[in-house]
Amino acid sequence: MAKHKTQYEECDVLVVGGGMAGTGATFEARHWGRDLKIICVEKANIDRSGAVAQGLYAINCYMGMQWDENQPEDHVRYARNDLMGMVREDLGYDMARHVDSTVHMFDEWGLPMMKNEKTGRYLREGKWQIMIHGESYKPIVAEAAKKIC
Question: Structure pTM?
Answer without folding.
Answer: 0.80
